[in-house]
From TrEMBL:
UniProt keyword annotation of Iron present: no
Name listed for the protein in its UniProt record: Nitroreductase
Top-level taxon of origin: Bacteria
One protein family per Pfam: Nitroreductase
Protein keywords: Oxidoreductase
Similarity field: Belongs to the nitroreductase family.
One annotated GO molecular function: oxidoreductase activity
Segments forming domain Nitroreductase: 8-158
Length: 181
């Protein structure tokens, strides 16, 4: 098993997949990792809708591809697409969010989605989180209630290339401060 920092370095946004199916038990491991994510007041305001049916998955991919801007052209290669649905927060989380002017469910969904993707990376499965997609179309395809938001889609598949790309990140000094901004 890799160390945590090795896993974080291994996890990347994959945009080229093989057509190899993802095993059901591996998808379940990713869901369990998301289930274990922390959330404000233990609200767990998420639901992961796993789409592995090829016809439905293709329609989901179409909802993610933007011909005009060229966004997400790789989505049709994904063998699984997961819709991350934001569920209502519990009363304490909702109240705390109002008082502190913070969107706790959105923060919580991000944490759970990253847990999901880190677990996938450990299993050798590539992922890419998408924020650009036709939410109305996805909602209709998956029969998601109109009062729910879908902040993310996650494409999944075995990477076509095992090659690790170098991660370009700002220097530590640009993203952190010690005892002051």
């Amino acid at each position: 098993m890799a160390s945590f920092i090795q896993l974080v370095k291994q996890r990347r946004s994959v945009r080229a997949y093989t057509d190899q199916p993802i095993e059901q038990d591996k998808l379940m491991q990713c869901l369990v990792a998301a289930q274990l994510a922390p959330s404000a007041c233990n609200a767990q305001p998420w639901r992961f809708v796993v789409v592995d049916n090829p016809l439905l998955r293709n329609k989901m991919a179409d909802a993610a591809v933007s011909g005009v801007l060229g966004m997400n052209k790789f989505a049709p290669q994904a063998v699984v697409i997961v819709a991350v649905v934001m569920e209502p927060a519990n009363v304490t989380s909702k109240l705390g969010g109002l008082i502190k002017k913070k969107d706790f469910p959105l923060i919580d969904v991000g944490i759970a989605a990253e847990h999901f993707c880190l677990q996938a990376a450990e299993l050798g499965i590539g992922t890419c989180m998408l924020g650009w997609f036709d939410e109305k179309k996805v909602r209709a395809l998956l029969e998601i209630p109109k009062n729910r938001r879908i902040p993310l889609l996650i494409t999944m598949g075995y990477p076509k290339s095992e090659e690790d790309r170098e991660k370009f990140r700002k220097p530590i000094e640009a993203i952190s401060g010690w005892n002051k901004y």
